Amino acid sequence: MAGVARYDEIADFYASGWTDDIGDPASLRLLDLLGPVAGRRVLELACGHGRISRELARRGAEVVGAGLSAALLEKAEAAERETPLGVRYLHADVTEAAALGDLGPFDAVVCSFGLSDIDDLDGAVTTAAAALRPGGVLACSILHPCFPGGRDVSGSWPAGARYHAEGWWRAGGEQSSLRRRVGASHRTLSTYLNTLRRHGLWLDELAEPEPPSEWAARRPDAARFPVFLVLRCVKAAQVPGP
Known about the structure:
The chain is α/β, with parallel strands linked by helices. The longest helix has 13 residues. The two termini are 31 Å apart.
């Protein structure tokens, strides 16, 4: 049974800040890398309040959204009742092997800014790989692991710490409104890529979309650096050996 999630306490704040208006560069690039989804079975890991799941359904996909936050899933299910799109939501810890039951296989798995919220990266990637059919696609977005931050904006790792020091932490930057509330797990770029590779998910395309112009205008020092990382992987027919 899925447990309490950090997002349960800030569900209203999060849902009001990240709406169904999919216009931000990272989400647009994520959907672009995922490719056409009409008629395909798609799983969203860490689906939150269903923002991306609903967009996938509007594009013709058969969608299952899985997440740990019961409070956010209540919002997702309420939106589905109000405007039915056929999305199925599952309250589950996606790091557990039996989280999805027999719902797979899927043609694609998508994870929008969820991997750094998940403490057990290997468990989440294990679930994603197991859910995909051979040749299926994983598309995910994260805060760029190499983003150093700027004035009043926290980077991907704590101020004063080393990039190579991995672990969970809570941001202190005044303008890092979400990560001040729920924290995040910092991992190096190599950790992400090697974990994906170990589970037979081969990097197919990588993107580093620039932040919205209005965000960059308010934070010019931070906007000099890569802020977002979006990637697409393809599941190999056979998982590589150790």
